[in-house]
């Protein structure tokens, strides 16, 4: 029996899909890559924003229509955030779906798939690490849930309260991925900076990085950390990022805004002065680091002056990368009920202005790497008019988030780490050539 996997949303969903794929593979199921080849389809959905929920439902309905037009009967199993967020509501709205699986019940996917296929006899899943990742980079989820309850965010209601995955489980998974050819571990979670704080014997992200560094060092692998909150940047963590050889000096801190009043309304901490001081401190203590952040435009009640404060902050900081979002009034969140909602046209105008600033600083930061010689992980091969390019990413480019390096000459295999001279840039992309190591 063959399973088609469709994953929507963030990297954390990619990890969840991979776990389900591993469970089903261990139970004897094979993977299909087209609906015409599949016996069952799994759609792992996102519901972080209303637009993501709509995309998940539209994707499911499109799949159902494609199945209806074919000759095969392919049950659809909807997993992840949409069933978690709208359990008890969505079932009657989507009769095309054979089964709904909350994110916290995805380990039961084998039984669910067997039921929708009418299989009676089960096969024992093989023990071991539940990953099937192929390629040079792999996301490693170190925590689940969130306790912050930002007023605009539905994640705590979808994914539940925060909990850290145990150290021994993470190290075992890391070793398995590295043994399988992975050369970059990207640590993710809703709030990576507080990993270990919920243990009976509290630990810290710095402790995890030290343990991960010992595992990664023999492989020459990289460790990258995403989704750090400003309050999590302790002296211990900064020192670990600076001093551990395997850990990349790449800091991802989503600030959302810089106005102290807007941040309080978001149920977040911070101010222009605090964030300026934080970024100045990080740049001083981790020379040459890359800094990524996230900004939100049009939060309810955001005044012209508060927006201009955010504009000035982004212009002065010159971030390497910055994602920009318009505020979305999500069902069940406090901010959706606030007065003084910003009109859509104003939100759009403000969002575009922030995007322009982010691109200006980001393109400039990318161009600043021209002339450098650095290590690049080869991620794939891309056809062009003259043959092919090798596609990879350097230490300052997070996979699936930032730009890539195009290598027009030279030979390498996917997963190789090669030495590259960066000779040009365009937007967030780099052009490089493989050089001999000195």
What would you say about this model in short?
The chain is α/β, with parallel strands linked by helices and 438 residues long.
Structure overview:
This protein is of the alpha/beta class and 438 residues long. It folds into three domains: 2-117, Methylthiotransferase, N-terminal domain (Rossmann fold, 3-Layer(aba) Sandwich), CATH 3.40.50; 137-367, tm_1862 like domain (pyruvate-formate lyase- activating enzyme, Alpha-Beta Horseshoe), CATH 3.80.30.20; 373-434, Beta Barrel (OB fold (Dihydrolipoamide Acetyltransferase, E2P)), CATH 2.40.50.140. It has helices at residues 11-26, 50-69, 81-85, 109-117, 155-159, 167-179, 205-216, 235-243, 260-265, 272-285, 304-317, 344-367, and strands at residues 2-7, 30-32, 40-45, 76-80, 99-102, 137-141, 143-144, 163-164, 184-188, 222-225, 250-252, 290-297, 321-326, 373-384, 387-394, 405-407, 417-426, 429-434. The strands form five sheets. The chain has a five-stranded parallel sheet with strand order 2-1-3-4-5, with helices on both faces. It has a five-stranded mixed barrel with strand order 14-15-16-18-17. It has a three-stranded parallel sheet with strand order 6-9-10. Strand 14 (373-384) and strand 15 form a beta hairpin. Helix 7 (205-216) runs parallel beside helix 8 (235-243). The chain is globular, with a radius of gyration of 23 Å.
List the topology elements.
Layout: E1 2-7, H1 11-26, E2 30-32, E3 40-45, H2 50-69, E4 76-80, H3 81-85, E5 99-102, H4 109-117, E6 137-141, E7 143-144, H5 155-159, E8 163-164, H6 167-179, E9 184-188, H7 205-216, E10 222-225, H8 235-243, E11 250-252, H9 260-265, H10 272-285, E12 290-297, H11 304-317, E13 321-326, H12 344-367, E14 373-384, E15 387-394, E16 405-407, E17 417-426, E18 429-434
Parallel strand pairs: 1-2, 1-3, 3-4, 4-5, 6-9, 9-10, 11-12, 12-13, 16-18
Antiparallel strand pairs: 7-8, 14-15, 14-17, 15-16, 17-18
Helix pairs in contact: 6-7, 7-8, 11-12
